């Protein structure tokens, strides 16, 4: 053909591709109201939790930091209210991730991504990292909201600073594992993000682990699950707790990313 | 070098074959018109090339490399079914996301360049959902043009466009192949429009390529005929058949093939007592070529 020109094809390296994909996802995250709405929700949850705990006169919390994490790693609790702490970020985070990824498929934008050099593994990693980032941000707004709510309800702020930092750090680290799980669920259900939302919600509440705890008892073996480790990051945490959270989150992130990559590679994009 | 080379491509959906050993060759720099009935496998082929569908078997090469090669894929742009934009984001934001994904350096400059090509430079701030169908198609083309693509894959880009929109789309496609050396694979049912721009054609049926032909070759093969109307069509038919003319009479139109001298035919008819009422010269175009090919039994 007379119009044909000499072409050169430069193969982008993995990190160049990932940088591009992460750039797109962060651009989208910061340019859509969804992210800010969920940051707001995360900030409001502690107020609702502390208000709910005040019902019936004597409150459930004796210390403001109990709004952030439980006193001890209890998998079996007497009151559902005892589950209400920063772990709730992972429930709402699941909803946010489902909407975020579902829109990729609903709008058809995912076609644009996969037509170009983007690989399926780039997509999984990028979505998991951006979702983990947004959940970590939600943890921060939850923390701020929790402190304000604690102060407003007149709760004490006495705590071992080191344990508190370990608990918050542990929960933030767990965001990566949760984000990878939610990304995996969403690449399975794709456009049907209603199903993803329900599934993420159910898993985020930790119901399967709570059910297992009812059978097995309050055993540390439950720490191998995402919810288990998230509960383990409590107000009696230490450096070991952070390490366990890190290990658990990293292992599950790898598992779900590999599974997601396999699903994407062997199935049609539509 | 060929821009696209497909060998024995097969793709099935729940046991139904959408592509059944498809072979296809698109030369570099061509505007390749991809034609076929609904459900013949055009979109499936395009989606396989774009990596949206996983083929059952077969080989796809783009510019001599496997179609999964990231280097080649970075130079592929596509508009398949819709523009693939976020409705609540602006035209600019949608293009920006693709520019970031492609790792372009001068993103703003590149976005302005493609918006200018598709004549959308004044609508950059518009929300995608507020755009008309024609505008959305043009945004899809702009998106596909980001990053100097070597290959453009367009699935029915002129569907739903008005006459002006079609003309604009035609100008854009000719412009990008001429000035940017891009290869274009375009599928469409509007054969008249396709005929104006395509340099090559591929006709697909039931998941198989039944004919690939270059536009000049099709031109040389196209039969010339005269359409004739007389007061007594039956008498004219008898007369022309007796005179050794290649005639076809369908009831409302009589065609005399392989003759382009209307004066000679008119004289022949008049000399034999038949007065022609209307005599027009025609050439069989893409549409008739396609219909004729499709009507042949056993062409699969």
Written overview of the protein:
- Chain A is mostly helical and 270 residues long.
- Helices cover 69% and strands 0% of the residues of chain A.
- Chain A has one domain.
- Chain A contains 10 helices and no strands.
- Chain A is elongated and about 75 Å long.
- Chain B is α/β, with parallel strands linked by helices and 300 residues long.
- Helices cover 36% and strands 29% of the residues of chain B.
- Chain B has helices at residues 42-49, 70-73, 91-101, 107-117, 133-145, 163-180, 191-197, 215-221, 233-242, 262-271, 286-295, and strands at residues 2-13, 16-27, 31-36, 57-62, 65-66, 76-79, 151-155, 183-187, 200-205, 208-214, 224-230, 246-249, 254-257, 276-283.
- In chain B, a hairpin with a 2-residue loop joins β1 and β2 (16-27).
- Chain B is elongated and about 75 Å long.
- Chain B starts with a strand and ends in a 5-residue tail after the last helix.
- In chain B, 41% of the residues are buried.
- Classes of the chains: A mainly alpha (270), B alpha/beta (300).
- Average pLDDT, all residues of chain B: 89
Question: Radius of gyration of chain A from the CA trace?
Answer: 21 Å
- Compute the number of strand runs of chain A: 0
Low-confidence stretches of chain B: none
The average pLDDT value of chain A, as a whole number, equals 89
Helix content of chain A: 55-70%
CATH architecture of the largest domain in chain B: 3-Layer(aba) Sandwich
What is the strand content of chain A? Answer: under 5%
How is the largest sheet of chain B built, in terms of strand order?
6-7-8-3-9-10
